[in-house]
Structures are given as C-alpha cells and as structure tokens.
Design goal:
Chain lengths: ~325, ~600
C-alpha cells in the first residue's frame, strides 16, 4: 500500500516536470525550429497556397492553443500524422522503438556489465599496472569519435573480413539477429566502456576505502567476497542511478549514428530526420514520451534504492 | 560501520530460462521491422541513393528520391528511353505518342487496356482492378485539390481548360473538368488553354502517375507510405532507410527493344546489355532501394556487397580514377566493377536578389547600370575552376548561362567570358561604375548549415575580398534546414544565394522559367528578375514546339540573363557510377530517375 501511495504521489509530482519539459521544448520547436512550410510547397506557390499550408501545419494558431493541443495529444498518446510522410506517429513509434531497443539493448547491458567488472578490477588494483592499463583503455574509448569507431568497425568486420553486414536490419531468427546486431554492439560497447569504466571505478574506489572493507580484509575475506559483498552491493545506488537514467535515451532516442551508418530504421534516425526537417508531430511525441519515461524511471529508481538499501524509506 | 552490513534480500540468481526469455524478447523486438527471410532463388537488385524520400504519394514526389520509387510503383503515360542521350520520350502506359490537333490545343491519349493495379486491401476482395483514363483524370484533379498539398500542380496550372476553375469551385471530384474528356476507359482527350509543348514531358514525371481513388480513400494521409499503383513493382515495405519492392505480376508491356531504347554497341556493349534485347520486364523479383545519406556508409555498403551500385562520393574519386579527362577507372576497379559517368541533368549556380535596389533593379537608370556593373564584377570574381577543383574533383562541366549541357538546346560554342573568373576585369568594372571600398553595399550570403556549404562560402568570400570588398561587408546567414533557407529566399531576405537545380524534363524552358517575371517569389523566379523583353520572348517560346525558331529564342533569353548578370552560373556536376558485374544495367540518377530499374537484370 505504501508503494502504491508513493507511486501515485510521485506520478502527480512528475506532472510539473512533464509540463516544464514539454513547454521548454515546444518553445524551442516553435520559435527556433525549422519551418516546414517551404519544404511542402510546390515550385510556384502563391501567397494563398503558402497560407493554406501554414494553416494545415497549425502555424497560424496562437502559441498557447498549439501547446494546449500538444498536451491533449500527450494525454491521449495520439500525436496525429507525420508532417513529412503522412504516416501516423503511433505507427512510426511502434515500428521504430522496438528495433532501437533490440539494437541497443545488448550493447547497453554488455557496456554496463563489463564496465562494472573492469571498474571492480581497476579499483581492487588501484594505482597498479592493471588499473593503469584499464584506465588507459577507457581513455582510448572515450577519446576516439564514435563515428570513427563505427566506420573502422564497418571496414574491418564488413569490408575486410566480410563476417558481418555493414547495412540493414533483416531479422527473422536468432542467428540473423546476431548477424545484424554484432558490429553495432561491438562499436557501442567499445565507446561506452570507456565512460562506464571510469565512472564505476571512481564509485568503487570510494567504497573500497571505507572501514567495513578494511575490516573485512582484516578478517581474511577473499577479493571476490569483498568486491561482491562489501564493495559492489554498497555502491549500487550510484550505479543504479546511472544505469536507470540512461534507459530513456536507449528506449526513445536510440542511437542516431549507429542507425544512420548501419541503415537501421530505429527511432534515433526517425528523431534526427524529424529534427532536421521540422516534423513537429514526431518531435512532440519523442520529447513528451521521454519526459513521461523519465518520471517513471524516477519512481522505479526510488523503488530500486529501497530494494538494495533497506534504510531508504519511500516517504 | 559493520552494523551497516545489513543482510540484504538475496536477489534471485539469473537462470538460463531468464536469459532465454530476454533473448526471445529481443528477437521479437528486432523482428518488429519489415523483415523477410532471404531467398536465394530471387533475382534482387539493391540500389543505393544518397538521399531519402519522405512521401511516396505522386502528388508530393518533388525530389529525385521520391520519383525513383514512385515511377516504379505507379504508371506514368510516358517515360524516357533507357539508353538514348540526349533523353528521348517513349510511351509507357500510353500506346504510342499522343495525337495532337493542328492548333496544338488538343492531345488524345490511349492507354494499354490490360494494365491493372496491384492487389491491395483497398480494392474489393483485395484484387487490383483495371487502370482507366479516369484514374489519370482523378490524379490530375487531385493536384488541384487544396487538401492534397500537391507539389506538382504548377506543371498544369493554367494549362488545362477548366481545371483551375474546378479547384476554385470547391474541388468536387464528381464535377467534370471540360479540358479532361474521357472518350472511353482507354482514351482521354486533354484540351489546353494554349499550346503547351512540354505537356508530354509532364506526363513522364512522377507527379503525373496514375493513382486509384479507392486507395487514396482507404489509406487517407498514409497513402504516402502505402502507395498502390500499376507500375512494374509494388511496394512491400518502406522506411527511412529502405524501400523494398516486389514484382507486380499484373504489369505487362511489350518486350524490351534495345534498338528502340537507343542502344549503341560502341557505348553499351561492355556492360552486357545486348543480352536484354527482347526480354520481358521487369526482370527482377525484388528491388531494394537503400537510402544512404552518409558518403562513408554508402561506400562501405557497396564495397562490402550490401548494395549493388554506388554513385561515387567525391572523397573516393581519387582512389578510383587513373584519369579525369576523359574519365578512366584504375585497372583494378575496372576489373572488379562496371563503371560509367555522365553529366547531371541540372546545375549549381548563385543568384542575386534583383528586388533589392542595392544590387538589383533600380528605378534610376544610372544606379541601375551601376548595380549591373556591381553584379557583373562579383560574377567576374567568382572562380568556377577553383570551385570545381575544390568541391567537384575538377570533373564538373562549367558552362556560361542557364542552358545546361544535358538539354538539346545547349550551345557548346557560347562565349565563356562569364565563367572565366577574371578578378582584374571585375575591379575595373567597379572602378568605372564608381564603386569603392566605402560605398560597396553589404552582401549577405545565405547557406544551409553544413561543412561543405561553409567551405564554399569561405572560398567565395576570399574571392570577393580579392575583388575589393571590405571583409566586414560580407556576411553569411546560416539556416538549419533547406526549408528555412527557402523561406528567407522566398521572402527576399538574402542578397545572394547558392542553389542547385534539377531539371524536371530535358527542355531549356525548365530553367528559363526561373527568370520569368510573373514567377517572382514566392514563385520559382527566386532572382525576382523582371525584364519585359525576356518575358515577351519567354511567352513567345512557350507555345512553340521544339525547333530552330524556339532554340533561337532560348539562346536570346540565355544571353539576356548573362548580360544582366542576374546569376553566377553554372556548373553541371559529373556523376560517376559503379556497379557489380553480376548486375546487367546502365544506371542513371538523372531525369531517367527510377525508370531504368525495370530493365535491370540480376543473377539469382
């Protein structure tokens, strides 16, 4: 019952956040975003035709009316049709979000798991050559542009070795899934690992210096026991926070570069196309749903805090 | 602190069933796209392009990329011959060329009686019905229906008797249009308000494709992503990375006659095209069009075999060519791939906003003349060779005026003063007209945000400084999208703009109309050029059929644009194509658009 009350309270408390995010983003879209009118017009438009298209796009309505419509759409999860293709926004999202999830989930999970493992190893060997080697690798991963990594991996695995496709998403069974997802996953893990390892190491090193770890060592506990029981478990809160807050970006934003360069029709590319073309119905849906997802993640995050640390109270 | 080691609830250990469930979930998610199991027995051609269409509704087929798909899904009355250059029109859905009345006002078309739309839920029982000329009438009317948001209505605006009035009266599809007379299901007579020799060309554009009313009603706004037509292929899936098309079993045309299509053994023999003579088409079971905007990704897709062709990105040219003029491929490339090159059906150019009295038209004759000298000086300073070498690998074709090499009216012997880049001559012009560093007006250069656009601006800025422009008088106005750039241009906010023009049909009228006074912005005359002499010649030429008289008028108009220094023009880019030797074809990204794909043969 406490949990339900807490969830409802947080949901209501999230409304101002959603309103704030949607309002700011809508101001940016309306006043600084691209004007789609002239992309939809013919070569010889008349002033009347220009006005007609502006009206069809809703540009002629007052700002607050448009924002009100946006909130109505967000409440009903019906964002209408794309201004570019005419496809229903709901169809676009239902088609692209699952692909982005399937594309990015392995890299997300592996990037975090390996980051934690490497962070633990580096923290345990702090200051020694293993630590330096891992941190050196992390810096390399962080320093090389994601784009360069993608192109290099495409050339190595697709063009030179010919093991994996460099383009497309024709998944119909598990082996075809592995076939298409491997190189994008390797590329995203390569880059994410650098950032993740550095972050997790910092958190774990801090935990390693605590009295209870020193005492456990004094009692003769082995490294695995200490790292798992005394270090990792007690460092879970910042780790969970980092992982949980990355989820909305994976679910909604996708990965523009991976999807563009590998020709994968995910939500990242759809969003980027919407940004560059000023397709407001798609942008509104992505921004609105990301805000809603963040509110939900905040709630789940707090519940997970409670699960890993009983001293945390959901009040 | 030890007390903090509270016994935590033990998390369930991950088990194999959980991992399997996760894998299954991922697979389900992954398969949410449009996927098909590979079939080695299918003849598939994977085509790559450097852009993506947004809508596949013929009424919005305003880009090369939309057209590429549209002309394969839908039927047009006419198309272009596969191999003939300069481009020649050929019947497609129409039987033969139209009968044209002596006064050029009536065109009678007949279409193939056995043409059928592909099967689709939009039709009763999901079975495609026969195509009739009523569909063409509906499709043309649809362009004039404000709710369609057509981008192609300009092709027929004011041309067909009663069509504009039909739109003004409320666009009621039940109402007939006097100029669109259905004689029977296969015969249509179009009555024009005045002779329009380009009419047949317009009926080879994707805009003119025949759409079934049932499908438009059934899919509503989503018709743009679920098109239904009677073309050689039917669309099976479409997203922002790929259009997948399957052969339309109902599509029937006479077998391919290579001689009729402009086959020249000297040019085409090496590609194995002779094997296609007499073949039924389309020859593919499946056509995939991959939209790959990123040059590096397009090239690696081709090099790895993910796609069968590539229009070579500039940064790869060095590695592929052993010679630029004439273009020759390195032996290892020629051994591995088929390749060809051709000049684009269009050109890139810069234009002044002539509505701005600081540069353009001015009521005072003396200032008007000084403004002309200023524009000419800027043109003199512009170095097309530098532009070509820096951005087009030195293989673009520079030409004076606005009649590009791809059209039959192109004059290769025209005086090239206007493209020679003589900065000294420009300085002299400025001095003679009384311009100096103190009185030169500010020049705002509009560009769409992008690295290459910025580099082009910087190069041009350097040339203007060399001409004598104070650096603080030259500024760039950057726009996030082409739509924003177009808005500024159409609202006359830019002093100078750089653009590319892709021809809608191979007739110089298509570029000369860009300078026709009544089409000033927001129309296609972005220069806002107003010259009554030019307009009179344009109107005179507009009703003339192709021939020496019309060509002479075109040349006079071309010279007026050059003399008035309205534009800095031009350069037609050279396209280099490579394709897999397992595919028998002759690609063309230009006016031919996607028409050639029906003639592509690929080994299973």
């Amino acid at each position: 019952m406490d949990l339900l009350t807490y969830t409802l309270r947080k949901l209501i408390g999230g409304i101002p956040l959603i309103l704030g995010v949607t309002l700011i983003s809508f101001v940016l879209m309306v006043h600084f975003g691209p004007d789609k009118t002239y992309e939809l017009l013919s070569k010889n438009p008349t002033a009347e035709e220009i006005a007609q298209v502006r009206s069809q796009l809703g540009y002629d309505q007052p700002f607050w009316v448009r924002y009100g419509n946006y909130l109505g759409q967000l409440a009903s999860f019906d964002f209408g049709y794309s201004d570019s293709t005419g496809e229903r926004v709901a169809s676009i999202l239902s088609r692209t979000v699952p692909i982005s999830l399937a594309l990015l989930a392995p890299g997300f999970v592996l990037g975090n798991l390996l980051g934690i493992v490497l962070g633990l190893v580096a923290a345990w060997h702090r200051g020694r050559w293993i630590d330096k080697a891992i941190m050196g690798f992390a810096v390399v991963g962080m320093s090389i542009s994601f784009l360069v990594v993608i192109i290099a991996f495409q050339i190595v695995f697709g063009v030179w070795l010919g093991w994996f496709p460099v383009r497309g998403w024709n998944v119909h069974d598990f082996s075809s899934y592995l076939h298409y997802v491997t190189v994008p996953t390797l590329a995203s893990v390569f880059v994410a690992l650098g950032y993740n390892t550095r972050f997790f190491r910092a958190v774990l090193v801090e935990e390693m210096g605590r009295d209870h770890v020193r005492t456990a060592r004094a009692y003769g506990a082995g490294p695995v026991t200490i790292l798992y029981r005394n270090v990792l478990r007690n460092a879970l809160i910042p780790i969970i926070t980092r992982i949980m807050f990355s989820i909305p970006l994976v679910v909604i934003s996708g990965s523009l570069l991976i999807e563009s360069y590998f020709g994968i029709p995910g939500v990242g590319k759809a969003t980027f196309d919407a940004i560059t073309s000023g397709d407001q119905p798609i942008l509104k849906s992505v921004v609105g749903l990301t805000a809603v997802l963040f509110v939900l993640i905040l709630i789940v995050n707090d519940i997970l805090y409670r699960a890993v640390d009983p001293r945390v109270s959901l009040k | 602190m030890i007390a903090r080691q509270t016994r935590l609830p033990r998390a369930p250990r991950p088990t194999i069933p959980i991992a399997a469930a996760c894998a299954a979930l991922l697979l389900v998610l992954a398969a949410c796209g449009d996927s098909t199991a590979p079939d080695d027995n299918l003849r598939i051609y994977r085509h790559s392009t450097d852009g993506a269409p947004s809508s596949l509704d013929p009424a919005q087929a305003a880009t090369v990329y939309s057209n590429m798909v549209v002309v394969n899904v839908f039927d047009t009355l006419y198309r272009y011959k596969y191999l003939a250059r300069p481009y020649e029109i050929a019947p497609n859905l129409a039987i033969g060329m139209p009968e044209v009345s002596a006064d050029g006002l009536e065109y009678t078309f007949r279409i193939h009686p056995d043409a059928r739309y592909s099967d689709d839920p939009a039709f009763p029982d999901g079975i495609g019905r026969a195509v009739t000329v009523g569909d063409l009438v509906y499709s043309l009317k649809r362009h004039f229906d404000p709710s369609t948001r057509s981008q192609g209505a300009w092709l027929w605006a004011g041309r067909i008797v009663g069509l504009d009035a039909w739109a003004e009266a409320g666009a009621d599809y039940a109402e007939a249009v006097e100029g669109l007379e259905v004689i029977d299901d296969q015969t249509l007579r179009i009555r024009l308000t005045e002779p329009y020799p380009q009419l047949v060309y317009t009926l080879a554009t994707g805009f003119s494709a025949l759409v079934p009313q049932e499908a438009v009603a059934y899919y509503g706004r989503e018709f743009g992503v679920r098109p239904v037509g009677s073309g050689p292929f039917r669309l099976s899936s479409f997203n922002n990375t790929l259009a997948r098309l399957e052969r339309n079993p109902y599509f029937q045309r006479p077998p391919l006659d290579l001689a009729e299509e402009g086959y020249d053994p000297a040019l085409h023999d090496e590609y194995g095209l002779a094997a296609l003579d007499g073949a039924e088409y389309p020859m593919l079971d499946r056509l995939e069009i991959h939209f790959i905007q990123e040059n590096a990704a397009r090239w690696s897709s081709f090099a790895s075999g993910a796609v069968d062709n590539v229009m070579v990105p500039n940064e790869q040219v060095e590695q592929l060519l052993s010679e630029r003029n004439p273009i020759r491929f390195r032996p290892e490339i020629a051994q591995r791939y088929h390749g060809t090159s051709g000049v684009e059906a269009g050109f890139v150019y810069a234009g002044f906003n002539m509505a701005d009295p600081r540069y353009g038209h001015h009521p005072e004759p003396a200032r008007n003349a000084a403004n002309r000298a200023l524009r000419c000086a800027v043109r003199d300073a512009f170095d097309w060779n530098a532009r070509n070498d820096t951005f087009y690998y030195g293989i673009g074709q520079i030409f004076p005026g606005v009649i590009p090499p791809v059209v039959p009216e192109f004059d290769p012997d025209r005086v090239r003063d206007s493209v020679e880049g003589r900065v000294e001559q420009g300085r002299q012009r400025l001095a003679e007209a009384g311009w100096n560093a103190d009185n030169l007006p500010e020049l705002r250069y509009g560009l769409v945000s992008g690295v290459q656009q910025r580099q082009m601006y910087d190069q041009f800025r350097g040339q203007l400084i060399e001409l004598g422009f104070p650096p603080d008088r030259i500024g760039a106005e950057t726009f996030a999208t082409f739509g924003d750039f177009a808005r500024a241009m159409k609202n006359r906010k830019l002093d100078l703009f750089f653009l590319g023009w892709t021809l809608d049909y191979p007739d110089a009228q298509n570029t000369l109309q860009l300078f026709y006074g009544p089409y000033e912005t927001p129309g296609s005359n972005n220069f806002n050029y107003r010259n009554p002499d030019f307009d009179a010649l344009y109107e005179q030429a507009a009703t003339l059929r192709s021939g020496p008289e019309r060509s002479a008028l075109y040349q006079r108009m071309n010279q007026m644009v050059i003399d008035d220094c309205v534009a800095i023009t031009g350069l037609s880019r050279t396209r280099i194509y490579l394709w897999d030797k397992a595919v028998t074809m002759y690609p063309d990204n230009e006016i031919l658009g996607g028409f050639f794909m029906r003639f592509v043969m690929s080994a299973p």
